[in-house]
Amino acid sequence: MIQTDILIIGAGPTGLFTVFEAGLLKLKCHLIDALPQPGGQCAEIYPKKPIYDIPGFPEVLAGDLVDNLMKQIEAFEPGFTLGERAETIEKQEDDSFIVTTNKGTKHQAKVVAIAGGLGSFEPRKPQLQNIESFEDKGVEYIIRDPEIYRGKRVAIAGGGDSALDWSIFLADVADEVTLIHRRNEFRGALDSVEKVEELKKLGKINLITPAEVKELHGNGKLESISIKQEEDIINLELDHFIPLFGLSPKLGPIANWGLEIEKNAIKVDNTLDYQTNIPGIYAIGDVNTYPGKLKLILCGFHEATLMCQSAYKRIFPDKKYVMKYTTVSGVDGFDGSRKEAEKAVVKSIN
């Protein structure tokens, strides 16, 4: 039986940052993730995807963000159960929880924080008759290594942040980038839309809207696509077609834990601490929902911070906590290192 203060289900960015915030409160964490390595989607699907909305980083690759988060939590020595899925949860008489994985590994904690991102997922595929025959032969649904597109002709379909961000990134990698969207308006960040428009003016992105891909052509590998724009058919020769229509998420076994679910997300109380309808179980990051919810990594970081404050009070109801900043000065021996930051904050608690 693995015992810890906070059991975190999901080792993506929000789950990893929870370890840091909990560590400042001298709370130990253990993480469960079905993937074989920490980082969630950022490590498994988008390691080379640039992220633009992390404070202090004008641009950071998703994989580098994960690496930085892992360095940030080294001092707090979290435990990991990787390659296993959280399957069942049982509440004990002492108000703790026992979570068992699909491989039978048991974990016990007073607090459970579900940080499972979108849950288990698979890419949404366009309804094209022969698309399966070109998968991994010119058709990709996820960009893991942008270097394979260097000097190639690439068409991206989609209107969200991923389609916009990758079009911008590949404009400096691929020989030719075409962005296709069925509407003139995009769903992504306005700044990204403006960048795409500017790159279009510079001749670095070919923008085709409103339009849809109707057919794929090739002999053994993808060679061209047919695009319908109003009444016209455009035949575009290319090497890669990347439809980025998002992911189809599923909560998996967590959906059977008695939690209040709304549109495949876990409802939480955002007026205080992101707790679910079951006291002691929290949901943070993309897996939760509440009025005004934004599915952004930085919002997950904020939710994790407030959740840890509530978790501390639940684990130590009789202990007084005095909030201190990590930049506490005047503490003997404090030199700015992570270890010393932990000592400084712990002194403020005890």
Structure overview:
The protein is an alpha/beta fold and 350 residues long. It has 2 domains: 2-121 and 247-319, 3-Layer(bba) Sandwich (FAD/NAD(P)-binding domain), CATH 3.50.50.60; 125-243, FAD/NAD(P)-binding domain (3-Layer(bba) Sandwich). 23% of the residues lie in helices and 28% in strands. It is built from 7 helices and 21 strands. It has helices spanning 13-24, 40-44, 62-72, 161-170, 190-201, 297-315, 338-349, and strands spanning 2-9, 29-33, 50-51, 60-61, 79-82, 86-91, 97-101, 106-114, 120-123, 153-157, 176-180, 206-208, 212-218, 222-229, 232-237, 240-243, 247-250, 261-262, 265-267, 281-283, 288-289. Strands 1, 2, 5, 6, 7, 8 and 20 form a 7-stranded mixed sheet that branches. Helix 4 runs parallel beside helix 5 (190-201). Residues 329-338 and 344-350 have low confidence and may be disordered.
Average of pLDDT: 89
**CATH superfamily name of the largest domain?**
FAD/NAD(P)-binding domain
Strand content: 25-35%
**What multimeric state do the chains show?**
single chain
Percent helix: 10-25%
Tally of separate domains: 2
Strand-pairing-aware structural class: alpha/beta
Radius of gyration (Å)? 23 Å
According to DSSP, the number of beta strands is 21
Helix and strand element order: EHEHEEHEEEEEEHEHEEEEEEEEEEHH
Largest sheet: 7 strands, mixed
Gross morphology is elongated
Quick synopsis:
The protein is α/β, with parallel strands linked by helices.
